[in-house]
Every structure is written in C-alpha cells, then in structure tokens.
Design a protein that fits this description.
alpha/beta; 2 domains; four-stranded parallel sheet; 4 strands
C-alpha cells in the first residue's frame, strides 16, 4: 500500500513557470534574490505536477525537484534523500529526467566547471545551436572567486575557443546514450532493491534521443516508464495545445530550453501520471 510519493527532477518538477504573473511580483518584494526564490518555490509547489499527482491519488508528496538540475544531480538526489528519508516499500518514486548535456564532463577542468551551472548546454537543442550553447557554456557563477583571475584570463578564453573544436572533433553521442542508459538502469535496479514502486518520465528530451536502437534499452522495464521513447511531458502538452505553457512575455529561459508548463499544464501532467500509475497497478 503506497503511503508516500517522492518526486525528483529539475524545474519542470519543482513547478517553475506555474503562474509568472504572481511569482514575478513575489520576487520583486525581496532584495535578497535567494529569499525571493525560496518564496517563489513555495508558491509554485501548490501548482506543480507532484502536488496534483498526490491530490489525485490522495497521498502525501515530497517534491525534491530543483530548478536547473542536471540528470547527475537528479540521480544523486535520490540517494541523499534515501539517506535521511528512507525510501521503502510504501513509497512511489517518480523521476522526471532533464537533459543529459547539462551534466558536467569529467574531461573538462574542474577549476572551470565548478564555477558554472551546466556542462555543454541546457539542452540538446541548444547544443545544436552552437552560438547560444557557447554563450551559456562560458557563463560562470563564482561561489569562490579566489581563482577568478585565472579562470577569466586563461581558462575561459581557451574554453571559448576549444568549444567548437570539442563539438566538431570530440563530441560523441554514444557517450551520452551510455550515460543515460546507466542512470535509468541503475535507479530501476535500486528501486527494485528497495521494494518501492516507481515511474520514470522524460521532461522535455527523451533519454534515448542519442540512439533509440541501442539494444541495452531493452533492459528497461517500459511498464514503469511513461511513453518511453515516444513522448515527453512537454510533447504531451504541446499536442494538447491551448493555455498550457508559461507566459513567454514574463519568462526567462536559456535559448534552446523548452518553456515551462503553467499551472494548467502542470495539472494535466499530474493527472496523466496519476492515470498511468492507476493503470499499471
């Protein structure tokens, strides 16, 4: 018997964009951007798809979605939660995947990567549009600026020039396909080990984007994966149409990133996942 729902994902799970007309005004009230962001996150929760999912199943929800999260962060958040929250047989865990190209790469200098929000780009589509991807790739957020002079004087100029060389000479989609498969397969087996029920769903990019014919995908239990390789949550809303996405006049999205759902869109996603779960029981 399921008594708890835990959801993991990025901004699509946290609920960003649910009602920008209201949340933009909330942020304006705070000089401290982090405080404003915290209040917005609390506001968005009530309209997020995890909240709708919980309401439809009449079960308490813990929403562990985090804006800007990469699949690496989503994957590891599961274990940090389990360390203190204990995932067990009474849990339904729902993982909404992000874009793998957000992951930071082990063959790029940590001095450069640790000061930035993402790896190659926010999304696969952005990566194809190299100009915008390069701009976001070079964006630095200095948590510790002791190496700022070196990063801006040496690493950033080099990485800016190297970006095109990497995408032309080194970029290999098989790397990301293998990475995506391992994320999904590992969690699948871990959730079996924990004895919990689970659902995977792709947010705005399919996890098998890089090689849909990769035979190892046959090891993934598709009965636990909403429309694997067929659709994403964003595609689902786009096909419905109407007032389901955030107000683009008020939103800020990195180039190439799909716009967030609004409260109407999140409601539809939550109801769709609830129906998927009920049918799979």
């Amino acid at each position: 018997m399921i008594s708890r729902i835990i959801t993991f994902g990025d901004s699509f799970t946290e609920g960003d964009g649910a009602w920008l007309e209201k949340t933009n005004k909330i942020e304006e009230q705070y000089e401290d951007s982090s405080a404003g962001r915290y209040e917005v996150s609390k506001f968005n929760y009530q309209y997020s798809w995890p909240k709708i999912l919980g309401d439809n199943l009449d079960i308490t929800v813990s929403n562990e979605g985090s804006s800007g999260a990469s699949n690496y962060r989503i994957f590891n958040r599961v274990f940090h939660y389990d360390l203190t929250g204990n995932i067990d047989s009474e849990c339904l865990v729902v993982v909404m995947w992000s874009s793998t190209v957000r992951d930071k790469l082990p063959f790029f200098p940590t001095l450069f990567q640790d000061q930035g929000p993402i790896g190659l780009g926010w999304s696969y589509k952005e990566l194809l549009e190299q100009h915008s991807a390069k701009s976001n790739f070079l964006t630095r957020y200095y948590n510790d600026d002791k190496n700022k002079e070196y990063i801006e004087g040496v690493l950033s100029p080099f990485m800016g020039d190297y970006f095109k060389k990497f995408t032309v000479n080194c970029y290999d989609e098989s790397y990301y396909n293998m990475l995506n498969f391992n994320y999904v397969y590992f969690l699948q087996e871990f959730f079996k080990f924990k004895g919990c029920d689970y659902i995977f769903i792709d947010g705005f990019e399919s996890m098998n984007t890089f090689d849909s014919d990769y035979k190892k995908w046959d090891l993934i239990d598709k009965s636990k994966y909403w429309k694997f390789g067929e659709s994403t949550a964003w595609d689902f809303l786009n096909n419905i149409g109407g007032d389901v996405f955030e107000n683009l006049e008020l939103s800020y999205n990195p180039p190439g990133q799909k716009c967030h759902p609004n409260r109407h869109g999140y409601k539809l996603i939550g109801e769709e996942i609830a129906n998927f779960y009920k049918k799979s029981c």
